[in-house]
Design a protein that fits this description.
Layout: E1 2-7, H1 15-26, E2 32-37, H2 53-56, H3 60-69, E3 72-78, H4 86-94, H5 97-100, E4 104-110, H6 117-126, E5 134-135, E6 140-142, H7 156-188
Parallel strand pairs: 1-2, 1-3, 3-4, 4-5, 4-6
Length: 201
């Protein structure tokens, strides 16, 4: 199984990217793992045109195949001003929903403080419907991120977080297997008029 991890901080060397590295090292259920740090790629703002010159000239041609081939995704966003990263929202708009449909996604929020719930709520509310990604029931909020997931366990909270991450990665793999039959049927025989219902009624 293939896993795609997307870290969406708009700054290089971010805590989101560090968390992505930890998840990558511990996602042993997947035999192929790719990490995309969005700030390292030149991507245009989504303008509704998949054939636009800006999109064709961007790094999207390197990212798009990874999205298409992935069996599961992990979406990591920092919390800025109580919001999810605009870079992640833009990434999700750029994705072709034929490539994301019926794939499980583990949502992860990263914050230097004790908050972090708003980005998760925002992503579940208005970022996943049209692309048909399936968020797993469990999500992760990495609070006080500078103090956890280092080279060694520092306290019981850090240990508990690591155990929760292990559980979440295990369940993400289980959902990937469970949804694979739907993805296969969707690929071989798409539901009639599926694209007509992409935006709801």
């Amino acid at each position: 199984m293939k896993l795609l991890i997307v870290s969406a901080s708009q700054r290089p060397g971010s805590q989101s990217a560090r968390v992505a590295g930890y998840l990558s090292e511990h996602a042993n259920q997947f035999n192929e793992i790719h990490h995309i740090e969005l700030c390292q790629h030149a991507l245009p703002f989504w303008d509704g045109d998949r054939e636009s010159a800006a999109l064709q000239a961007s790094d999207w041609h390197r990212i798009s195949p990874l999205v298409k081939q992935a069996d599961a995704l992990i979406l990591i966003t920092p919390e800025w001003g109580g919001m999810a990263s605009p870079m992640l929202k833009n990434f999700l708009l750029l994705c072709d929903n034929q490539d994301t449909a019926h794939k499980p996604a583990l949502l992860v929020a990263v914050t230097s403080g004790i908050s972090g719930s708003y980005p998760i709520a925002e992503l579940k509310m208005n970022a996943l419907k049209n692309n048909k990604l399936v968020p797993t029931p469990d999500h992760l909020i990495i609070r006080n991120v500078e103090q956890v997931l280092g080279e060694r366990v520092v306290d019981s909270r850090d240990q508990g977080l690591r155990e929760r991450i292990g559980y979440s990665l295990h369940m993400l793999a289980q959902y990937s297997v469970a949804l694979s039959s739907i993805r296969q049927q969707h690929q071989d025989l798409p539901y009639p008029k599926q694209q007509e219902y992409v935006y709801g009624m």
